Fold each of these.
Amino acid sequence: MTKKMPKDFLWGGATAANQYEGGWNEGGRGPSIADILTGGSVNKSRRLTPPAPLEDEFYPNHEATDFYHHWKEDIRLFAEMGFKIYRFSISWSRIFPKGDEELPNEEGLKFYDNVINELLKYNIEPLVTISHYENPLHLSLEYGGWKNRKLIDFYMNFAKVLFTRYKGKVKYWLTFNEINMLTVPFGGIFCAGILDENENNEENRYQAMHHQLVASALAVKMAHAIDPNNKLGCMLAYHNGYPYTCHPEDILFAQQYGQLHNSIAGDVHVRGKYPGFAKRFFEENNITLKIDDNDNKILQEGTVDFVSISYYSSICVSATSDGEKTSSNGSENIKNPYLKASDWGWQIDATGLRYVLNQIYDRYQLPIMIVENGIGAIDEVSSDGKIHDDYRIDYMRKHIEQMKEAVYDGVELIAYTSWGCTDVVSASTGEVRKRYGLIYVNKHDDGSGDLSRMPKDSFYWYKKVIESNGEEL
Ligand code: BG6
């Protein structure tokens, strides 16, 4: 048997509104939490400046890489690459500028009507993330973010507008981006919109996660009722933590790391209830969740149709030793001596992708989408005016090879969308120079650049991969 990808495999790319769209104060849009985050770097954290942007600060997400004014051109480039699917998020504050209004902003919806119609024109399947790292700012300032149960109703109002408006046009939906980032402080800000540092503690984050899990389950039920063809997925930042040594304590620690960072949220989404180990973890960490009587029923009735993940790197974890530390997506942990890393220290581990896909499929037996994968790198324009990003091609080739292995292992993989298919602003550092794109955007960290687009070498390479359904790597 040769290692082939399924016939209808969905190849494509992924972005998020807050990092890509720009137009932060156009078309009636209200500010989101991403609009009060300054730029940063690998050594300097981004800073929040509530309640509003400051005059003398630079906010990279305000213009981002300007999909708001380049959507037609960018979608044409996606079509040229042969995309079958495009993952993007809908900016909540473009539709509900404050988040708690009853009626949506029609001008905001028109923008997404255009985007979706343009995708469908090229037979590109839209995959919509309902909430990707940008709660309307007002919901944080007025209600304290997702630790407040009221946000469930506001989210449902938003979701209903989307499911109704895009009925028959959008079939695939993700309820929350990387919900499991709520296990770390980063997620308290990005996922939950908890802006006060003193409030960004474990108890509030797990309470916020509970509210999002309830909202997700309600959204699944609603979407199925509005259109039985709708398919809803959860989205996990897959934390792949290997035991640093074969000491049994390290093996157990790695298992617990995975349970905590991946499976608490994943199990509730897929199985409709908290796993046994969650109870012990909450008890031992003095986390008391407020769970309404009806919540368990809601969770049971709103389980997802598929699982999606972001996968960039792996990390080592240990209960027994202190190794040299490095960062990975959303956390910092021990370096793996067998792996090389990106310029931002994220360790490149293609084999880990096969491992993770098998692990998820063994656990859930649901179709899987890889909705984020790629390498953040510094791209230089060469003397011939082009970008020769062979390091990106190498990264993607190795990961796609492992994806094929996983399919051969029996994993039901249905989609792959490479992250930041057009260059976007980095979520963790706020930089543009941490580029993931197959399409270069002439935009720089000091805000300069004419925003023109240019395919990189990886663009032409990926086009062939898609054309050959993964045969030509
Ligand atoms: C994921 C997020 O965590 O990783 C994206 O869903 C993010 O929003 C991506 O951009 C890469 O991370 P970063 O920090 O390099 O942008």
Note: The pocket of 6-O-phosphono-beta-D-glucopyranose is lined by residues 16, 19, 133, 177-178, 237, 310, 329, 372, 376, 419, 426-429, 434 (CB under 6 Å).
Amino acid sequence: MKSAMKLIENWFSERYSDNLQLSFRVMDQLLSVKTDFQRIDIFETYDFGKLMSIDGTVQLTERDEFVYHEMITMVPSAMFKGRPKKALIIGGGDGGTATQLLKLGFDHIVNVEIDGQVVEVSKKYFPEISKAFSDSRVRLLVEDGIKYVHNTDEKFDLVIIDSTDPVGPAEGLFNSNFYKDVRKLISNGGIVVTQSGSPFYQPKALALATSAMKAVFPNVATYTAFIPTYPSGFWSFTVASDAELKAADASWLPDGKYFNKEILEGCFRLPEFVKDLIKESK
Ligand code: AG3
């Protein structure tokens, strides 16, 4: 008898709504682990290399992580007067943000990640992206970022909130009490930035981040980037500062693979529906 060959296709999907999802065809599932905080999955995909998802939402892929990590570090760095040197990262357990900051010449980085398993998994499956964790300029603390910002009195030029969506462990990061504590930690002219979701699929995330920051800082601005593997591909970040928010003389900043001087200007130009969202958030 001829043996029947069965062709199996495996797919990982992130749900954007009840009626829409983005699916990645995968070669293999490399890991699925439930931690004290969330579920982490790693897939080997056909189009995007290795992919990490947390609670079913894409956190990073090897192929497009550069967009997110450049944009969350280089835009706020370009707005800092002078050369920023000290940074605090809340979240960012994959190490991509810290690794990018080292490339920009930061010499003191504190990275506070609540879930130690995100760090361990990233070291194993994303060694290039997470390599900052073996650099002496980076201090990794596995603890609650909300408590950390409440208790520390260190000062930073840049505070980066590299979090998951505002549900689960990251919820308290989209909150004005959190930003009140953050404000005490920024140096003169210091800048705070957070990822603030997809304006199209997660308007609440952007509205929450904007309101939380506006309650505490006089200057708040939103910028966007194209990140193919995040919901709708159109992603927002929100910056805040006591200082005026404008591009400083950032001639020291190199071009990245996404970031350049034109992007720095262009990324703050917003579609009307995004402006409306921000206007409505007090
Ligand atoms: N931080 C997560 C961005 C949120 C993605 N959301 C989603 N896919 N629904 C990125 C971690 C990279 N350091």
Note: The CA atoms of residues 29 and 43 lie 4 Å apart.
